[in-house]
Amino acid sequence: MMTVATTMAADDSRRAAQSHFRTLRLGTPFQPRLDALAKTGDWYNWAGYRAPHSLWGEELEYFAIRSQCALFDISPMTKYRIEGSDAEAFCNKVTLRDVTKLKPGRVHYTAWCDDEGFVLDDGTLFRLSATRFRLCSQERHLPWLLDSAIGFDVAVEEETESIAGLALQGPTAFACLRAAGFAGVEKLKVFDLAEFPHENGTVTISRTGFTGDLGYELFIGRDLALSLWDRLMEAGELHGIRAIGYTALNRARLEAGLIVANADFVTAEHAIRSNRTRMPDEIGLGFMIDPAKAHFNGRRAILEARARKKLRHVLVGLEIDGNVPAEHAIVYHRKNREVGLVSAAMWSPMAKRNIAIASLDLPYGDSVTDDLWVEIYAMCELKYERLMKRAKVVPRPFIKLDRRTASPPADF
Questions:
Q1: pLDDT tens digits, 297-352
Q2: Which residue numbers delimit the Aminomethyltransferase C-terminal domain (predicted)?
């Protein structure tokens, strides 16, 4: 027979277990500032960190990106330091693009594959010096990177927890940095990076981002993170700076035609079914591959698939009739043959179009682009209505903003 004390202990244990599942384990270095600004209470788990879907309103947060400047915490993004005399050769082996062409003080967007040529992830490679790199990615790859480093004079270390990161994006982003006293930041062209003094240390600022807008990313040791946040927020007050969550950023990246691992494609390590994996050409990353480049992971399989026409899929941009977003809609040819799936969709306030990214089975989306339709289920007064809307294959990005590449950028 259970006593009152036993029952109370069991209840306490049950509540503790439930609390464990409700509470995310990690806070980023900027968590105190995010918590203070959070009005929606809309949080999610980003790689074990407590991250906001939105802070004060996802619609207005999106417009903060496009009309002023937005501050987004990218600290949970996986970051690796790659350093040593063979660092260039190592990075050139494991990633698709030619790292010998990446000069110190530059960044490039790249991807990496397994031996069968299927994409493990995509990300950005920062060349900090002749022998030091930073690789940023969506997923964690440390065991694979360490295995790949055998035989190279190189050290690979994850620095996700020790390096805080911020994305500052939008038309007044440069004005904010200038007001914050980062002298010389106007010299940064797209994909440039440089170090700037901050208190008793330095901050690395790159002209990069995930919005297709004028933008920068800032990386700093976690002990100086809060003072950097405060410096930017104070300097940016007259330039409309606002902190934002992921939903707004995701809308901006879709307008820019950018893809997200395990959202727009399934990475090779996460794929359970063999037909879910994708080669670079199948997700729009074929431009990264230089057939003249020496050995890199997956090279033989990728070039063989091209030569023998073994590619199975294509990632395309779609423009869809109407204004109802087609997220996760099935794509049909002639309304009866299922040929693909929409992975991201929205009504674009900037493009004034109903846009989407979709993965289609070849030859659809390539040589066959006519008579494509999407099946949308729209909620109308407590009832789902099935809509069949015509879709047209269109180029990405869906919007192209001159201010993204303007040099020097406008100072508002």
A1: 999 999 999 999 999 999 999 999 999 999 999 999 999 999 999 999 999 999 99
A2: 315-400
Q: Does 204 lie in the same domain as 132?
A: no
For residues 33 and 179, membership in a common domain is answered with yes
The secondary structure of residue 152, as a DSSP letter, is: S
Q: Is there a contact between 75 and 49 (Cβ–Cβ < 8 Å)?
A: yes
Whether residues 109 and 135 share a domain: the answer is yes
> Do residues 219 and 29 touch, judged by C-beta distance below 8 A?
no
Looking at the structure, tell me whether residues 44 and 93 fall in a common domain: no
Domain count, the chain: 3
Output the six-digit token pair for 5: 């004390």
Residue tagged 């729209």 (tokens): 378
Per-residue confidence (pLDDT) for residue 1, from 0 to 100:
46
Cα Dmax for the chain: 78
Q: What integer pLDDT is reported at residue 139 of this predicted model?
A: 93
Domain match, 88 and 66 both? no
Helix axis angle, 58-67 to 246-255, nearest 10°:
50
Q: How far apart are the first and last CA of the chain?
A: 74
Distance, in Å, from the CA atom of 374 to the CA atom of 360, rounded to the nearest integer, reads 12
pLDDT band per the 50, 70, 90 thresholds, residue 12: low
pLDDT at 9: 53
Tell me the DSSP string of 84-151. Answer: STTHHHHHHHHSSS-GGG--TTEEEEEEEE-TTS-EEEEEEEEEEETTEEEEEESS--HHHHHHHTTT
Q: 285 is in which domain, residue-wise?
A: 274-394
381 and 279 assigned to the same domain? yes
Closest by CA to 84, choosing from 145, 160, 161, is 145
Kindly report the average pLDDT of the chain as a whole number. Answer: 94
